[in-house]
Amino acid sequence: KNEVEQSPQNLTAQEGEFITINCSYSVGISALHWLQQHPGGGIVSLFMLSSGKKKHGRLIATINIQEKHSSLHITASHPRDSAVYICAVGNQFYFGTGTSLTVIP
Amino acid sequence: DAGITQSPRHKVTETGTPVTLRCHQTENHRYMYWYRQDPGHGLRLIHYSYGVKDTDKGEVSDGYSVSRSKTEDFLLTLESATSSQTSVYFCAISEQVSGRLFFGSGTQLSVL
């Protein structure tokens, strides 16, 4: 049983493309987290949100609590955005298996 | 990085030996977590702590124990390591006010 489902699992994009990564969850939550993990690297928090939308630079995160769904958008994608993006929910945190993004120059 | 340090960064050990991983934080956060990350599974909670000497089990706690005798240190012990415990282990804290998650750099553990 997966409390958190992400899609797609893998994504390849051309530099400059608009990217969307989706996260659906089945548990009740107070907040949802989007994390970024570069190959061989640590895990960095991008967003924590409980409603609506947040924006940071070229990254936008949205959440619909009623539909139990969140999206992470990357505008004007760049090769340095290549990483695994992970969605997490819950008090002790359930994690999705991640979306591996590769942006080609 | 919220002042989180994991040690060691890499460890190779033999089946049956005890192993202790350390997570150290410098900012007095109450909540600390140990996760393991394996291909196809994502991050899974092993144990967590909500204060000194206050700990609880997570989803995959079998074969692991933890201790938190000081706010700043959260130790994860594999009493008798098995090959199935080969993984990358991450420590994390959540800020009490903001709720944001911060992770240590991870420990790559190989049990041969």
Key words describing this protein structure:
heterodimer, A: 105 residues, mainly beta, 6-stranded mixed β-sheet, 5-stranded antiparallel β-sheet, 58% strand, globular, B: 112 residues, 7-stranded mixed β-sheet, 4-stranded antiparallel β-sheet, 0% helix
Structural features, described:
The complex is a heterodimer of chains A (105) and B (112). With 105 residues, chain A is an all-beta fold. Chain A is built from no helices and eleven strands. In chain A, the strands form two sheets. In chain A, strands 2, 4, 5, 9, 10 and 11 form a six-stranded mixed β-sheet that branches. In chain A, strands 1-3-8-7-6 form a five-stranded antiparallel β-sheet, with no helix packed on it. In chain A, a hairpin with a 2-residue loop joins β6 and β7. The mean pLDDT of chain A is 93. Chain B is mainly beta. Chain B is 0% helix and 59% strand. Chain B contains no helices and eleven strands. In chain B, strands 2, 4, 5, 6, 9, 10 and 11 form a seven-stranded mixed β-sheet that branches. Chain B has a four-stranded antiparallel β-sheet with strand order 1-3-8-7, with no helix packed on it. In chain B, a hairpin with a 2-residue loop joins β5 (42-51) and β6. The N and C termini of chain B lie far apart (32 Å). The mean pLDDT of chain B is 93. Chains A and B meet through β5 of A and β5 and β10 of B.
In short:
With 105 residues, chain A is mainly beta. Chain A is built from no helices and eleven strands. Classes of the chains: A mainly beta (105), B mainly beta (112).
Topology:
The complex is a heterodimer of chains A (105) and B (112).
Chain A: E1 4-7, E2 10-14, E3 19-25, E4 32-37, E5 43-49, E6 52-56, E7 59-64, E8 69-74, E9 83-89, E10 94-95, E11 99-104
Parallel strand pairs in A: 2-11
Antiparallel strand pairs in A: 1-3, 3-8, 4-5, 4-9, 6-7, 7-8, 9-10, 9-11
Chain B: E1 4-7, E2 10-13, E3 19-25, E4 31-38, E5 42-51, E6 54-57, E7 64-70, E8 73-78, E9 87-94, E10 101-103, E11 107-111
Parallel strand pairs in B: 2-11
Antiparallel strand pairs in B: 1-3, 3-8, 4-5, 4-9, 5-6, 7-8, 9-10, 9-11
